[in-house]
Specification:
The protein is of the alpha/beta class. It has six helices and six strands, in the order βαβαββββαααα. It has a domain of about 120 residues: Maf protein (Alpha-Beta Complex).
Length: about 180
């Protein structure tokens, strides 16, 4: 099976490979640079999901399955949260899954609310470059308990559900 991941980010590609390996599915996963169709810093679940869906559909061309992964920020209990959504499509079926939601520290949330993108803010806060291509905000905010790859792997796994089990074959729950 050939899988196109709608991003040039190696962490998103690795997360997708990891999800397919965990599902015992053989897949050749390739990064495909596509536009998300949403802002650089998606705000809210709706925009973030729209970006993941757009990336999946655009990555599908020439592949058996297209995967789109989008990170964003959204309001949640007691502040702003880092969110992540994944979409998977074969052109007929579309699956969605989300990763963990992590509350942003107030100072970081304030900067994002002022219009800055989370990735560069995290780079500055931790004094490293390309945090989004390494442990990500998820790794920084959890002290390394989870990293961006594992968080995104869970989102991709959720999106793959309709392709891995029969439970999505109809809207009715199995008896």
């Amino acid at each position: 099976m050939r899988v196109g991941v709608g991003s040039g980010n190696p962490v998103k590609r690795a997360a997708t490979e990891r999800a397919f390996e965990a599902a015992d599915r053989s897949a050749s996963v390739e990064a495909v640079a596509v536009e998300s169709g949403v802002s650089e810093q998606p705000i809210g679940d709706d925009e973030t999901i729209r970006g993941a869906k757009t990336r999946a559909r655009r990555a599908l061309e020439g592949y058996d399955v297209g995967i789109g992964i989008e990170g964003g920020v959204a309001d949640g209990p007691d502040g702003r949260y880092l969110i992540m959504w994944a979409a998977a499509t074969d052109g007929r079926e579309l699956g969605l899954g989300s990763g963990p939601q992590l509350r942003l520290p107030a100072g970081i949330a304030d900067r994002v609310d002022a219009g800055e993108e989370l990735g560069p803010v995290m780079d500055e806060v931790v004094g490293l470059s390309s945090v989004a291509r390494k442990q990500g905000a998820a790794g920084v905010l959890t002290g390394g308990i989870i990293d961006r790859e594992s968080a995104l792997c869970h989102a991709v796994a959720g999106a793959l559900g309709p392709f891995l089990t029969e439970y999505y074959a109809s809207d009715a729950a199995p008896k």
